[in-house]
Recover the amino acids of this structure.
């Protein structure tokens, strides 16, 4: 199955080259390289879900860098990372709200019959597969822990 997202990245890279947009060009090349590396690791071509996973990882890295640079008082680097983050987020689907994550988590918890924190291992893989690219894993983890803990 050909990945639609991979074609969009290629098309956007060509457009960024024509427009002379150095930041966008750099970010897209970085994502395409990360996708290629993931494909080499898996020895298979990534589908759109896999590519979204790579993009989510890049988004997470940017957010962590922004926090670190803010603590280090490096506002020049914060601005650069925020510009890259904005470009990356343009490739992600609309992110779910906490309420939507809670609703999905409750549904999966009912489906697998989870009752306690010990059942978290049954819930998380199924839930993360459904929410891949649509929600931050830490947020999902926090919601599941909260729901199973009560």
């Amino acid at each position: 199955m050909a990945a639609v997202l991979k074609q969009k990245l290629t098309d956007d890279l060509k457009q960024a080259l024509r427009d002379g947009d150095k930041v966008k060009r750099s970010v897209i090349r970085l994502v395409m390289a990360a996708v290629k590396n993931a494909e080499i690791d898996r020895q298979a071509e990534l589908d759109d879900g896999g590519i979204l996973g790579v993009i989510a990882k890049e988004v997470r890295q940017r957010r962590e860098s922004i926090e670190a640079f803010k603590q280090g008082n490096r506002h020049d680097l914060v601005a650069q990372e925020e510009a890259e983050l904005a470009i990356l987020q343009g490739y992600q689907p609309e992110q779910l709200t906490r309420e939507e994550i809670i609703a999905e988590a409750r549904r999966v918890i009912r489906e697998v019959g989870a009752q306690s924190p010990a059942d978290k291992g049954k819930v998380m893989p199924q839930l993360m597969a459904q929410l891949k690219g649509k929600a931050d894993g830490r947020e999902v983890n926090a919601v599941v822990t909260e729901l199973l803990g009560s």
Observations:
- Helices lie at 4-19, 22-42, 48-71, 75-89, 98-112, 120-131, 137-149.
